Amino acid sequence: MSYVLKRIAQSVLTVYVVISASFGLVRLLPGGPLDYLRAQAVQQGGSDLSMSEINARIAAQTNIAVNEPIYVQYADYMAAMLQGDFGVSTRYGDPVMSIIGPAIPWTVFLTATALFLAFTVGVSLGAFMAYKEGSSFDVASTGVGLVLNSTPGYVLALLFISYLGYRMELFPTGGRYASELTVGFNASFLGSVLYHGALPIASMALVGFGGWALSMRGNSIRVLGEDYLRVARLRGLSTRRIAMRYVARNAILPMYTGLMIAIGTVFGGAVIIENIFAYPGVGFYLIQGINARDYPLMMGGFIIITIAMVVGITVADLTYGVLDPRAKGGGSRESY
Amino acid sequence: MSRTDRDGDSGETPGSEADFEAVGDALGTPEQFTDEGRDPGPAPISGHARNGRVAADGGSSSVSEFQQMADVSMTDAERRRQWIDEKLLAPARIVWSDWRARTGVLVVVSYVLMATVGLAIVTEPSPNQGGYLVGAFRTLEYPLGTTASGVSLLSQTVYATPSMLTMIASGAVFTVCLGTAFGTIAGYKGGTVDRVLMIVTDIMMTIPGLPLTIVLASALQIDGNPVIIGILITINAWAGLARAIRSQVLTLRDAEYVEASRIMGMETSTIISGDIIPNLMPYITMNFVQQARAVIFGSVGLYFLGVLPYTSVNWGVMMNAAVNRAGATSSPAAFHWLLVPMVTIIILALGLTLLAQGADRIFNPRVRARHAETVASDGDDDATTGEI
Amino acid sequence: MQEHRTQGGPDSADPIIEARNVCVTYDLEHRDAMVLDDVSIDLRRGEILGVVGESGSGKSMLANAMMDAVEEPGITTGEVTYYPEDGGEPVDVLDLPTEELKEFRWEEVSMVFQGALSSFNPTMSIRGHFEETLAAHDYDVEAGMERARQLLGDLYLDPDRVLDSYAHELSGGMSQRALIALSLVLEPQVLLMDEPTAALDLLMQRSILSLLADIKAKYDLTILFITHDLPLVAGLADRLAILYAFELAEVGTATQIAHDSKHPYTRALLQAVPNLDAPTDSMRPIEGTAPNPAHVPDGCHYAPRCPLATRECHEETPPWVDVEDDHRSACFHSDEAEDAVPFDLSEVSDA
Q1: B19 touches C at CB < 8 Å
Q2: Interface TM-score (ipTM) > 0.95
Q3: Topology of the domain covering B122-326
Q4: Where exactly are the structural domains of chain B?
């Protein structure tokens, strides 16, 4: 129980640190975002804007009231952030949350599906390769796994979008769903969501599963050689039980740390993938913010991606504590 | 188990007569060594492998003492030869015997050659070198084709290599140094130092790397120095390595030879650099290679998005130009422009992946023993079992 | 010391497992590797038979062969016959169909491995191991768990605490005892123990051995105890069998082997025993190394290292010589062994 509390406290601390760091980046860097925003405001508003009007505008955009003492600025900033107020986008003129908020579920949909597919397919394939160790199937799969593992997701995405998207016109090349559809729980809408999500998900999942398959293969082969497996066979346990409770469980558990790192990789990768497929997720807006030097949008996007990842990792970590009896106290977990 | 081991230099089965009780009480019988040797516990690695192997022999204690005495009485030349054999030739033999490692080495070496000798052979890229958007493998002059402004893709690719390799190396070195430093200090010191360092590490681990890089690059207004970009790409990648290293150090910390150094009053820094780090080398090397791959993926991806500053052309910038200037995704005529840098990346990444797999074999003392002629007589249980 | 057993002729008195001409071979690329070479021995009902050999001498293979548990791709040939209690039909172990073999293992003959920690599934509680074993053999789980508690208690373990633990939470000695309890939960007749105390410290070895004697008496077991540690087993076993390089060298009662060994290898082993009291120069390692299974010498396997070896030793397999009642030695020169490889009993006894 105390482990759960500690783990959650750690996650809260992480989010706090990241938000504080974002304040530092925006506020404290000379020639940084704040000066840029000021210049932007002067340029747009012309000379008829007074200094206080400019400051008010910046305060609305960034939650930083520049004429207040620094600790007041910090406190106000943190308070606003905790209420989900990430300022106002300079490019769109809308509150950052109203732009990024609706994008969150789409990014989570892409990344979670891709991660789930890569993991389950990879693990099953890896286990099968281990049972067929040395066969031509094993050798061929290992080769494919190696090549996919050495391919970045965006390369696959570019290949997909140019062949399957533009040339063969089999898949859409942008958007979350067909624009003429109304949002709702109906077959045509959900179908369209899957149709638009298929290529982004495939490009993330395909490059991931090779790695999972290879580690699962290695782990399974190791477990198959363990003494306890031999004892289990001699004790007359059924093949099924040995496969599930002995091989699968003991081979998958060490991959949990990798899974947590993969959550980060997938979120990072999604930023690039979403831009290739013009898929309006958090990463798409993050890059929009960067390109337009829209600091509120950029920081908001970054903080939200971080929070999503912290939640994902915390959940994974806590589940692991339940699944692996050795994880109590968190000592032996990092055995990868 | 030990079904085929051909170890046991001599009767490790000591026997006594009537008074077995007395024998049993005679503590420190060599069985203890034998048992430890047979236990598949932490495999002895690198510098200490020799001693480890003596224990693993299951030989009687007197035999291992003879072997150790023989070590002492070796001449310097002999010892040097043995050192070269063990540290250089044996790994080289292993690398060459494994096709994965061999391919990996060849790939990496050819990229290094491209970044050095290549610059002298291939002409510098410049606009209007050739026709616009010449396809790949159409002309001998521009084997990989040209861009929309007539720049040879081969020239661009080759001239991008030095800065890419610098970036890769700087990112990998940064990660490995920081990760090793954090991991060893936290693991060795323990206590408050450990707790504080691990909180920092855990926070860094849960921040998504690429978005962090993007935000920092944008807010810090840095220039396109490849060394700095390499570090920026791996800005928090060291955290995962630090965690892993720490857990390994935790087990090494209590090893007997480390304890011996402590008792002898050695400085902590000496113990860490002399006793701990050498045993972590396999892990560190593997991570170096993996980080190198991560830097390629990350940097090219971000250059492709156009969110990183650059001073000279590189593979990611090439991809960006191909898509944004010539619409390479939708136009078949420009597709080779996109394909050339992509293939370049994949081959290098594949080479590094294979190298990492090979590195695993080099540092695996079991595989090593089989290939090292100097130690060939020390048959290792599992090495033999593996052949069956 | 040990009392002489008064049973009948060599290897014939009421065997529970009878092994005849058992060989285990591995088919290597170039040639066969024989890791157990034509071994014939009886395990007598109610005895503790100690099998002693260096690591790699094939002693584990012998135990594995007795329950047809040699792992692929090893091939076991010869005959292993199991005689159930009360004159049931003898069982040809190596020919048992899969389903019957599954029942035979653990219900009739059970095994304890060295390294108990690695014999348990790290992600399953000890209770889970007992329950799944009972369930896999269609035993009544509730009654079986009651017996498990009883067994754990007999081994001086706190049943509830141990059952709710995972293997990594137990000490070496505790997990080894838990493994012994697990091997006995289906009430087998025979317990094959493969270096069960090898990973433990001397005190724990001692206490497990004395527990073993109690358990054997209480549950009426026959035990095959494999070890590389001759002094350890000699105090416990009724009879000893010495294996060298995949074949049996000598079989006899514990006293006969320890005091009147008629095989140069056994005698060399005894000479090599380290003892704090004995002068170091009387303690001698055996020169040379044991052969590789793929390159076993012709004739007597020990011949290349034997001070007595003559031409025939290198060419012919030595015959079994009955040196005493119930004591046989596979050596051409069994009557010379005593003089050629002397070791002075008094050195140890006097100390």
Answers
A1: yes
A2: no
A3: MetI-like fold (1.10.3720)
A4: 3-98, 122-326
